[in-house]
Specification:
alpha+beta, Nucleotidyltransferase, domain 5, Actin, Chain A, domain 4, 3 domains, 5-stranded mixed beta sheet
Length: about 350
C-alpha cells in the first residue's frame, strides 16, 4: 500500500515542458496543462535579483528603468543565456511542483529536430540543476503529431510545419520518427522585427515588440478582395520625439511580411524536394499540418497551400500541440521509448 501511494505521488510530479523562444508551457501528469507563460524575465542589474518572470516580465518590455533589464533567455529556438534560462525554468517549475518533494520530477522536454549535442547537453544540465531525476528529449514535430492525434506508429508519411517564435521547422515523419527535416531561425519574432523596421524606415515611427505583435495578430497576412483590414498604430515620432499615429492596412502588411514568409516557404519546398519517394503520396492525400504560434497568422495556411499546391490544415490546438503530445508520453512509457532522442545523437 505504501509503495503504491509513493509511486502515485512520484507519477503525479512527472512533468512535460515545451520550452520555446516566445513562451514556456508545462504539463503535469494527471493534471494536464498547468503553466503557460512568456519566456521572459526581468532582472535588477545592480544585485542580479529577479524582479519578474513570465507575463509580468513581458508587460515590462520597453518600459523598464535603467536598473532593470528584460531578457529573452532563448533566441532562435535555442538557449542564448544559460544562467537566465536556468533561473527562469527553476522559477516556473517551482510554481507547479508539489511542496516537500521527496525526489525530483521526471521531465520530458521538446526539442527541434536539428538540435545539436551542445544544445542538448545545455538542456540536460539545466534539468539536472533544477532537480529533475530523469530527463527525456523528444523532437517537437513528433510530439505535435501525437498531440494532434495523428498516426505515429503507422507507415504513413505526415508532414508537419511548426512555426514558433524563433524557429520554423518542416518535418516529414513515419513509423515513430523523422524521415527528413529542415529548419530556419526565422519565425514569429522575425515577423515582429520586420514590422518594427518598416514603421521606423517608412514612417519614422518607433514601436515596440508588443505593439508589433498586436499588429501582426490583428492584420494577419492577406485579405479577401474588398475586405481590407485597417489598424491605427501609435508610437514615438523619431523626428520630433512626440507621440504619433499612422494607419496600416492588410495590403501593406502583406508586403511587410513577404520576405519572412518567402524564407519559410522555401524551407517547406526544400523539405518536400528532399523527401524519399513513398511519403509524398500520403502527403498529397492528408495535406500539410501546421502548428505553433507563428502558424496562427491569419491567412498563412491559404498562402502556403497556393504556393505548394497541397492541402494545408491547422492542427486542432496549434499553440499547445507539442506540450499535449509530450504530456501523453508521460502516460505511455512504451511510446516514449520509441520516440525519445538519445542525448549523444547529433
Amino acid at each position: 500500500m505504501f509503495k503504491e501511494l509513493f509511486a502515485s505521488k512520484l507519477m503525479g510530479r512527472d512533468l512535460a515542458m515545451d520550452l520555446g523562444t516566445s513562451k514556456t508551457v508545462v504539463y503535469r501528469r494527471a493534471s494536464g496543462m498547468i503553466l503557460d507563460a512568456p519566456s521572459v524575465l526581468a532582472i535588477n542589474k545592480k544585485d542580479g535579483r529577479i524582479r519578474a518572470v513570465g507575463l509580468k516580465a513581458k508587460q515590462m518590455l520597453g518600459k523598464t528603468p535603467q536598473n532593470i533589464v528584460t531578457i529573452h533567455p532563448l533566441r532562435d529556438g535555442v538557449i542564448a543565456h544559460f544562467d537566465a534560462t536556468q533561473r527562469m525554468v527553476k522559477y516556473f517549475l517551482n510554481q507547479v511542483r508539489p511542496r516537500r518533494t521527496i525526489v525530483g520530477s521526471r521531465l520530458i522536454v521538446g526539442v527541434p529536430c536539428n538540435v545539436t549535442k551542445v544544445e542538448k547537453r545545455a538542456l540536460l544540465d539545466i534539468a539536472k540543476e533544477v532537480g529533475a531525476r530523469k530527463v527525456s528529449l523528444v523532437a517537437e514535430p513528433v510530439a505535435a503529431l501525437i498531440g494532434a492525434d495523428l498516426p505515429i506508429f503507422e507507415p504513413v508519411g505526415n508532414m508537419i510545419v511548426d512555426i514558433g517564435g524563433g524557429t520554423s521547422e518542416a518535418a516529414i515523419t513515419s513509423l515513430n520518427g523523422v524521415v527528413i527535416s529542415n529548419s530556419i531561425r526565422i519565425a514569429g519574432e522575425e515577423m515582429d522585427q520586420v514590422i518594427i523596421q518598416h514603421a521606423r524606415e517608412k514612417y519614422k515611427l518607433l514601436i515596440g515588440e508588443q505593439r508589433a505583435e498586436t499588429i501582426k495578430i490583428n492584420l494577419g497576412y492577406g485579405c479577401p478582395k474588398g475586405k481590407d483590414r485597417k489598424m491605427k498604430i501609435r508610437g514615438r515620432d523619431l523626428n520630433t520625439g512626440f507621440p504619433k499615429e499612422i494607419e496600416l492596412d492588410s495590403e501593406e502588411m502583406q508586403e511587410i511580411l513577404d520576405p519572412v514568409l518567402a524564407a519559410i516557404l522555401d524551407m517547406i519546398e526544400m523539405t518536400l524536394e528532399q523527401c524519399p519517394p513513398e511519403p509524398p503520396g500520403d502527403i498529397m492525400e492528408n495535406g500539410i499540418y501546421l502548428t505553433g504560434g507563428g502558424a496562427c497568422l491569419r491567412g498563412l495556411d491559404t498562402h502556403i497551400s497556393k504556393r505548394v499546391k497541397l492541402p494545408v490544415r491547422m492542427v486542432p490546438e496549434p499553440l499547445l500541440a507539442v506540450v499535449l503530445g509530450l504530456g501523453r508520453l508521460l502516460e505511455n512509457d512504451h511510446l516514449l521509448s520509441a520516440v525519445e532522442i538519445t542525448p549523444n545523437s547529433s
